[in-house]
Structure formats: C-alpha cells, structure tokens
Design a protein that fits this description.
alpha/beta; 6-stranded mixed beta sheet; 2 domains; 3-stranded antiparallel beta sheet; single chain; about 300 residues; Rossmann fold; about 40% helix; 11 strands
C-alpha cells in the first residue's frame, strides 16, 4: 500500500465518525473560560464605574431600579493541539508493516490532525529521537498536514539514535510561562517510551499547567513466531548489537516487564490527574482517540 492509498483509506474510515462526534469537542462548541468581546451572550452583570458604557444594555437596565446592566459575552477560544511524536529507530522496526508502531503513529496523527483542522483549531508538531528533529509551528492547513504525514511515511530513522523524551518535554517546560491569549494548549505525546530517562516528573510538571496525554504504542509479538522457534537471534536497532535468547522465556520476561512499567506509569499519572492510553493495532480504536478529545471540553 502506498501513501495515497493509505491516506484515502484512513480518511474514509474516520470521516463520518469525526463529523458526528467532533462537533461537540472543538473550537465552535466547547465553552470558553475567557470573557471578552465575543458574539455569544453569557450573562448580565451590574455596571461598575470605569467600564465602557458601550457594554451597557439599556433595554435590560430599564427593569433595574437604579444602576445599569452590562452584557458579558463569551469570547471565541482557539484550541492549540501539539502532536509530539517519537521518530527514533525503535518505532520503525517490527514484525509487520501494517501493525508496526510507525504505521500506528501515522494513523493517530492523521485521525487527530484531521479532527483538529476540520474545526479550524491549530495543530503543532514536534518530531524527536535523541534530540528535536522537527518543530512545526501551529497550523490549520490540510495541505500542511498531508505533507507532514508524507514526510513521516518516508522517514528513515538515524541508526544508533536512542529515544530521548526530555528535549521535547523541555520545549514545553520552557513555554509554560508564555502568554497565550485566548488559547488553550493540549499536548499529545506519542511514543513507545523505550528509554531509561526519568521523564515522568517532567510530564507531571507540564500537566500542572496544560493537559498532556501520553500515548504508549506497542506492536504485539505474534504467538505463531514464538511457538515455531526455540532460540531467537535479535539485533538492537538502537545500539546495533546482536544477541540470542530463549524465545518463550524472553516473551514472558518482556510481557512481565511491560505490565510492571504500565502499572507504575498509571499510578504516577493518576496521582497527578493525567490520563494515558496504551495502544496496539489489536486494541486500536478511532472512537477512543476521538473520546480523548471529547473529554477535554474546557
């Protein structure tokens, strides 16, 4: 399957669901927390000395015995969604191209990116491996999204570059004090999180100022592969080293370690009010991704 076929297929797959469900979650529908000069009436408030007299509702004030009423309006708000994507070598290796973490990453970016742009909100993008590879300023152009997806489709990871989440996370830590009038940021961090870094505290600090959602990607090991071999020879795509291991013992070890890591992460995130998703092709759901946005009604 080439890029054009994939993109046409996934847009057909999600378009109806996005049309039905996204209407309640993005710019035009979520209630603004900002007060200002908007078009939607919110409530009346007693006039106080110093306010602009142009805000007084004279007709409503006629019913008030003494004083004046001021119309308070809801101001339109822009949602700025940042997709932060792991482009390290471990995301591009696997047992099946269709079920690979790379393809899963592309599906997520296409679904969420299409949702954001359709609602005239903004999407920013950061690609990283051991350092920041790409920083794309927030945009709302379908053409820019397609070009981004095509670039990631053709991307070849650098050999020996390990996953490092800290440079991307520090990008947002440096911005947390920046003024973003009439904007709310949503950060979606997509990776296999195969790193020894102590990155969770940084996510927690960012989450204290902006919603941030880690999405853990994995490609499940085919059971048929394990049952057909006794010893596996493998190559670490990030270090380049080769090794051998008993297939069944290795699988049990990997699965146990994965469960422990997921339980630890969930415990840490729940303590900070952060939600995380764990996705593979077997449990991938378009509705779950859209739900992720629906829950962020500000």
């Amino acid at each position: 399957m080439d890029f054009g076929e994939w993109y046409a297929q996934i847009t057909r797959r999600v378009d109806l669901r996005i049309r039905d469900r996204v209407q309640t979650i993005m710019q035009g529908m979520h209630r603004s927390t900002f007060r200002g000069r908007g078009e939607d009436f919110d409530f009346f408030q007693q006039y106080t000395v110093g306010e602009e007299t142009s805000h007084i509702d004279w007709k409503a004030s006629e019913r008030l015995e003494g004083g004046f009423l001021v119309r308070k309006l809801r101001e339109e708000r822009v949602l700025e969604v940042w997709m932060v994507a792991d482009l390290s070598a471990s995301m591009f290796i696997g047992f099946s191209e269709e079920k690979s973490k790379h393809r899963l990453l592309l599906d997520i970016l296409a679904i969420l990116g299409h949702s954001v742009i359709r609602q005239q909100d903004l999407m920013g993008f950061i690609g990283f491996d051991s350092t920041l590879r790409t920083v794309l300023s927030p945009f709302r152009s379908e053409k820019t999204l397609v070009n981004l997806l095509r670039t990631i489709w053709d991307f070849q990871p650098a050999v020996g570059e390990k996953t490092s989440l800290l440079p991307a996370l520090q990008f947002f830590e440096a911005r947390k004090g920046a003024s973003l009038p009439n904007k709310k940021q949503l950060i979606i961090l997509i990776s296999d999180f195969e790193t020894d870094e102590d990155w969770i505290p940084v996510v927690q600090r960012i989450g204290a100022h902006n919603p941030i959602f880690p999405i853990f990607l994995e490609e499940r090991i085919p059971e048929s592969l394990i049952s057909s071999v006794g010893v596996l020879t493998y190559r670490d795509v990030e270090s380049g080293e080769f090794g051998k291991v008993d297939a069944k013992a290795w699988l049990d070890l990997v699965e146990d370690q994965k469960r422990r890591e997921q339980a630890y992460c969930l415990k840490q995130f729940q303590a900070s009010g952060i939600k995380a998703l764990f996705l593979s092709r077997e449990i991938f759901s378009v509705d779950e991704l859209i739900q992720l946005l629906e829950e962020q009604r500000f």
